[in-house]
Amino acid sequence: MIDISRYIKKRGSGILLPVFSLPSKYGIGCLAEEARSFISFLSESGQKYWQILPVGPVNESCSPYQPPSAFAGNPDFIDPRELLGLGLVTQDEFCSFADSVSAHSVRGIFGSIDYKCVLPPRRRLRRAAYERFAALPDSSQYKTEFSRFVNENSFWLNDYALFTVLMKKHGGIPWTEWPEKYKLRDVCALNEIDAAMKHETDFIRFEQYEFFRELIRLHAYARSAGIKIIGDIPIYAAAESADCWSHPEIFQLNDDMKPSALSGCPPDTFSPGGQLWNNPLYRWRDAPTETSAWWAARLRHSLMTADVLRLDHFRGFESYFSIPSDTCDPALGHWEHGPGADFFKNLPDESFPREAFIAEDLGTLTPDVGKLRDELALPGMKVLQFAFDSDSSNTYLPGNFGRYCVIYTGTHDNDTTAGWYRGLDERRAAKVRHFIGSFLLKHREAQFTDLIPADTRRRWVRGLIAEDEIADALVLIAESSKADLCIIPIQDAAGFGTAARTNTPGTASGNWAFELGTAFEFSIYVDRFARITNACRRI
Prior knowledge:
Strand order of the largest sheet: 10-7-4-2-1-13-12-11
Largest sheet: 8 strands, parallel
Structural class: alpha/beta
Strand content: 5-15%
């Protein structure tokens, strides 16, 4: 057993806010000015971490957990002002773009991204920037740095560029239905299409270069401000992805290159029919060398732009649920052993520095999942919203866990804390109020007197807590817990209700669109969060 004390982080706290949710006058959050302003807010308010969701390209559902590449970035996060500053678009082009999206930007406190209206103008602006980039002399600094990026990232970038262009060429049909020469990656055919459509494949490379140029600069800015970025690694790749097309040897595919088994979870109390996620599964046992090499490259690449990575669906590394693709019925699925500890232990140190990972270990777990997490010395996750579903032995209650974990009020898959509380039946709502009152009785220290006025404390102890105070109370409880790291979703920090929810699992629309509006002011929260983190000894 590894001595986990070697990896315990210093006590700290941070905010969960996806990049797309940053406020923007241009319809969707991006990587420059507003992101730097948010980092400044974190620093001024005593925070140490910014947790973001995956930043890869998205499909029509806009879910960051079904990316067409496990390595690429989302070019929609490129800041249009950066393109203007680089001289790649003219002032007239930029003003025309800004006019086309201004009516669809979120101007209040928060709202929803209008993807259909704000993304096409962004893409047209990037196309204009690329045409001007293509005309630059090869000796220009931007093109020199672009060429270096392309060479250093050729192990994934060339396949992604080809995949994207071929997908468009074939009208978006699945790659398994492409002509055999493209489907089975005939080298001559791929070289021919790359040469014939080099202008288009280079456009994809250009977008990726500019995305990572901005993200790397933002990461450096965060570090200079004392803020660490927590990234996110979805465990599965999408079936319609450059990864599945270019590395079929690591996925469970049949002779037609279609998944023979799919990811998901079995029927349970919360999902009577089970869940079908539709991702192809890995060939952990049949192709261990190839699979490990792909994962090592993926993790190493992700650590270029993040200080810490959250391993999504960690339990899948211990055991994963396999659903036959010919039925797509979770009720007919079964569990299979995952790669276990040996997989991680055999990864190169630069791909798996253990102090840089968090295990997403939520849900119904077997003891073996906890053993794997502890053997690898990874902190797990605790969610306060889950603490009231059972009795006093609930493992999410702050009194039932120690330091080595990350506590959240809720995650991106939960309702906001205010919305969650309003949806509780009276029995569970009373349980929450009683818990808050008991917490205050146990914490009479002077450190909380300037955070909770005396009359408010007296009301809370008696269980007289208003709905709009619940989020504030649970934020304080999370921050004051033993957990080394506390992460609060921005919606809970601001006390927003269900309308501000990021994602509702199992639903096909209305997700991944939450955005702070241009009227939202981070400054009004600086003093409050600085006092909380100081009182809870997280500064």
